[in-house]
Protein: 2-C-methyl-D-erythritol 4-phosphate cytidylyltransferase, chloroplastic
Amino acid sequence: MAFSRYCTPISTPAPALFAYSPKLPQTSSPWHNVRNSRLVLGTSIPNCLRLRGGRGRGDCHVHVVESKSRLRARAVLDKDADDISSQANELVPKKSVSVILLAGGKGKRMGANIPKQYLPLLGQPIALYSFHIFSLMSEVKEIVVVCDPSYRDIFEEARNSMTVYLKFASPGKERQDSVFNGLQEVDQTTELVCVHDSARPLVLSGNVKKVLKDAWVHGAAVLGVPVKATIKEASNDSFVTRTLNRQTLWEMQTPQVIKPSLLRKGFEVVHREGLEVTDDVSIVEHLKHPVYITEGSYSNIKVTTPDDILLAERILNQR
Structure:
C-alpha cells in the first residue's frame, strides 16, 4: 500500500493574499514547514491591518496586500508550531510504549505446515527477531503478543531476563480485529502504542526509535520507504487507466505507532461505520488526523514466501 508523505492532505495559503516575514524559521522538517505556513479559517481582517504572531522564534508577520474593505482570511501561523519543534528534540520517555506484536497470521502463501512467523530463520523463529529488539528498548514497558495460544510458549521461553512485561491476546478474523484485541490488553497509562508484524524480522532498532519519536511529536507515525517501481492504476478488465507519480508514493511498513487515545477513537469510527482497513494508521486517517511517514529501510521486508526467507538470510549474514 502506498501513500503520500502525509496521509491527510493539508492545504497551504494562497500567496496572493499574504506576504510572510523573513522571521519565519526555516527547517528541514516538512511537517514544521507545513505547520508554519498553515492558515486557519475564520478571521476577518480590515484594510491594511497587520497581524503579528507571538514573540520568539516562531514570530510571523502577515500583511494584507490586497486592498478590500474586509477580507475573509485564512488565518496565520499556529502557535503550536514552536511546541512541535521543541518536542522533536525530546526523547520518548522510558517505559512509555506498549508494543502489539502481531503473530497470529496463517501464512498460507508460504505453503508450510506452520505459520510463517514461526519458521526458523538461521535457527531462530522469525517472530523472535523483532520480539528481542523490542524487549531491549528502554522506551518499551510491555509487549502484547497476539497469537494462537498454542504458540505462546515460544515467547515465554524466550523471555529470559526481559525487563518488560509480557502479555498475550487472541488473534481476530482480520488484522484490525487482532490489533483491537491487543489494544484491550495495553496498560491504561501507556503513551504510545507500537504495532508491528512479527513477519518483519529485519527491522532496525534505530528505525524503531525514529518512528517512536515522530509519533511522540505528531500523534501517529509509520515506517515507510519511497516507492521505486512504476505504479499503474488499472480498470477491472486489466487495462491501464493512469500512471501514478511515484515521487509522492510510499510503501508502508511496520512498526506503526499511534497515541492510544487516537487509536481508540479510530476504532470507534471503524466499528460504527463497519469499515475495513488493511493497516493501523488507516484507522487514524478516518479521524482526519495527519500521519507522519518516517523513512525506514528497504531491508525491512515482510517474509511471505520461501524466496523471502532466502533474502532475509542473506541480509542477516551481511549485518
